[in-house]
Amino acid sequence: MLVKSQSLKKLIVSVTVLVVSTAMSRADGQWVAYNDCLRETGDSTAGNVTGWTINNQDLTHFTGRLKNFETGSEAGMPTVTFTMGAAGLQVSSGGAGGNPSPGTDAYEIFHGIVDFGPNTVYYGGAGWWVEIEFTDLDPTKMYAFVGTAIRSSNYPDRKSLFTIIGHDSAINTSSDGVVSKGVDATVLLAGDNSITGYVVRWDDIVPGADGRFKVRAEATADSDGGRAYPFGGFMLEELGKAGNRPPEVDAGDYPELTWPNNTLRLSPVVEDDDPCGLGILTFKWSQLSGPGIVTFYPRDDIEDPCAIFSKPGDYQLQLQVWDEVPQQGTGIVSVAIIKPLLGDFNGDKRVNWDDVVLFAVRWLDSEGGAADINGKDGVNMVDFAFLSENWLAGEGASLLINEFMARNDLTIQDPQGEYDDWIEIYNAGDKAIDVGGMYLTDDVSEPTMWRIPVDNPSATTIPPHGYLLIWADTDIGDPGLHTGFELDADQGDQIGLFNADGATLADSITFGEQTPDVSYGRDPDGVHNWVTLSPTPGSSNNGSYLAVVADTKFSHDRGFYDSPFSVTITTETEGATIRYTTDGSTPTDHYGQVYTNPVHITTTTCLRAAAFKAGCKATNVDTHTYIFLEDVIQQATDPVTGAQVTPEGYPTSWGSVTGDYQMDPDVVGQDGQDKFGGIYASTIKDDLKSVPTISLVMHKDDWFGTRGIYINQSQDGTERVTSFEYIDPNGAEQFQINCAMAMQGGVSGGGTSLDRWKTFKLSMRPRFKPQTDDRLPTGGAAKLDYKLFPDSPVDRHNTVVLDAVLNHSWLHPGSDQRNTALYIQDQYVADLHNAMGGHSPHGSYAHVYINGLYWGMYYIHERPDHAWAAEMFGGDEDQYDAIKHSSSNVINDGGGLSSGSARSSYNAMVSAASAVRSDPTNLSKYNTLCEKLDVDSFITYLLSNWFPGNHDWPHKNWYATHRHPDGQWRFHNWDAEHTIEGGNDVGESPSDIHNMLDGNAEYRIRFADHAHRHFFNGGALSYPITAEMFQTRMTQIDRAIVGESARWGDNRRSNPYTRQDWLNTPNSKLTGFFPNRSNTVFGYLKSSGLYPNLSAPAFLINGSHQHGGQVAVDDVFSISATGGIIWYTLDGADPRLPGGSVNTANATAYTEPIGFTHSTQVRARALSGSTWSALNEAVFAIGPVAENLRITEIMFHPQDT
User: Residue 334's domain spans which residues?
Assistant: First the structure.
């Protein structure tokens, strides 16, 4: 496959419907080199791959020249030198390595070249590092570096930090799925990277003036006790001269066509470095040779026209591409239009009954076209004689992949009522064929991926010229034919049909990005002409689309405006009609204004548009919201009286209550004045831009009509198609996506109240998927592919919650709640859990608009369900069990629909905890519990709820997820609004799990270790850290709360609540709650036996207390304790063994001060009799690596790989 740079500077022109699988090299590039960092006897690493490395077992092969992979020569190649730190590197011996899965980035680059198995290089000890330096490079040229690390098991806390050093410039193009990537640094999880196949990559590397650069590998500061992995192999490529390069053009690779099939969709691949940053390329197709004339439809100056050939023969086509400079790139491709067998009228390379049917239609026709074989006297017996001579000629393999759909939003349902991918197999022969025992795959290198069942011939036999429909949905347990794979509509994929021997390829197709509800198939059936189709699953292909209408473009982007302007809407498709609306409704091919002139925008407007053309697939609906803040602050207000005026087209009443639309003039002011001396009127416009904006747009009736989801409780849980726009006033990336919208939380039976108007401001849940639950197409993607929350590892969302906040808000019906409005406590509790290394939803805040009406400040956050867990921990969302509130409320069964896996697995975990309670000294039973429950995450989860005093929990308000079948259960915070009120529910836990475990010594010592880590030495639960985290959230909404005050501050009383009213509450918490809270909660832990009376050791440098950090080589390190013997380790091991014995193999009894020669992790406990203290641990760093080191995880297992 073509390996493309992911550089932000590059403009990638992707294939349309055919995937080109030929390689392309840079115009002025010279070589590619590969290195295997662990060559092992019998591995499958290719020849011409070097094996330079360094580790504790190999200190002699650390430097030498790389080889040109193509030629094997070292001439002119750079030198590579490995250097490692004092902690060293080890080599596994039990098969801990592995190779990347097909379709991943690492597979595309290293497959068949570098073997990453069976073993791997891994950390040697805390503070390990390794550097790979390249010398003898040309500083006038650019290079690409790609590396990866693979650990065959899942270690989600072992994070490798890779940094590029000593270069002049480079572009980080590492895989999108890595933990994080900056300009010069990438964080990668090697665990399970054989599945994800992520790579660390920099393109356009310009070496330093000395012709050098290097890449450093080490553990991140928050890695699992310093455990992580260096590169297992890498590629270095010379790209060519630095500076602008001409476009690189691959004109495509196409199958031959059999006349009379004469139309071919051209699918080039072009790469350009986009020198001016404008993303502009100019195309020109032309004919170089051939026996006839080639016509390019609709024209020759677009990327992917159709080429129409006037007669059979061999043709050469040329594609010229210019960038903005302009520099020119050229690609040439050959296309063969072959003459058919005499009598083959439909171009399927066979002469059979299909041709007889076409022949009969033309019988005795004086202008018989192809049926007049001898070209004389029309269609008669002479022509029939020619056909008879070739009867059944060309008959070969008659089973063909005939049509497929990789994104079925609303075309056809499978027997289970689901809209899934599908594949159609066509029997082009004249005999029925049972395909049972044959194989389908989405990777031809794995022919036996899914076998067609052999036990039901009636379902798998295809009649002559008949069709068989197979669902590509992974639901192999469902009735019907369901493959074990799905098709990738976004990135493209391939389908292979193999004979029953599992080796012989019967047919295959490789394809690119697909359009929703448009199939791709042969036209006509069985021929080698693949086109986009109006879908015909299970029947003849007879309705191809001429094209897909090019997306609409708006001259003005969504955002904030101060003065009127006109918007031009365009599409590149000639003859297409653009329709638009400004009332929130969806434009269709028969609804909406026909666009003829620019649309003049004078006030806040939601402009929606789509383009249509007969015979073509229409565009999706694009929406741009233009916000005029001068209009927003006067929203729904009579300018004379200041009273509310219901916006045109909206209902005055919302069921039993009067609708509330107004921005309160008491707050936003009239003519710059407000009721509070102008302090809010003077800032409101800036306040409305202090956090991002989300604009939600759909037909007004879908919000507020007789079946509107906002005002009708009967519609709770139902979905409406909605446009979701994200607008960042600070200039960050903005986007729009269509989705399914439902109401959320207390407005439904699953929430806390069935009172519809317990609050007028309702929470909402946009769900990112191609169709609503009742099968209406949304026109949107299956996920929101955007990092909404910078501190979250999740950057692909199924769901985002727009949380209105009920408790401790100005809309609560109780005055005690309104007078203590906070708005930040829910996310604060999740922040506590995340800060301790747990896993709870990340969130932020945004101003929300409904159809251009400002709706207030919303708390935006993740929903910790099965889809979120898959993004957080890896794997597929269908693999995860997820429950909410209790084991009886199952969100998803990871074992399959109706499998009951979530409830049974959760109950098994609780039973394991119960077994610990019944036999608390049995270490085996405790270890069994640890296999089923992530005990560390559970402890931090409890602390995150005990510290703020959550008293609306644990009988509800929690999520838990588990990867089926062998993962660990993890708990996640949810709806923690009744917190920071002073309550002390220490000892509470979901399903009473904590009380089942607190009699076990291993659980108690682990709890004590977490308590010491988080309540001492600047830990997450120590003061003032807790207050600072709270204050961070206060600052986030400090100005945005003015918008909330203007929109909803007067909803429950005439005198509006204001920012100052809000400030009073969180400020009182800063002075009255937080200063003593850490001591209070820690006291509960001690009195409950969760923290021993024996104090943990303290660390000193030169006699002064210092908990880790920078030290000098001549500094003196000592340890003190109030009692007992101090046992410590310097290799990352725990001084205490499970069961309570001293770890004599690793631990030393402290007797005298210690000196450090390199960065070191110290772990220490005190032991008095049989009582152990909590663990104290810290990293003391020497040298420049210090800033990257700090302990953020506690390890409770022995050192392993």
Answer: 248-338
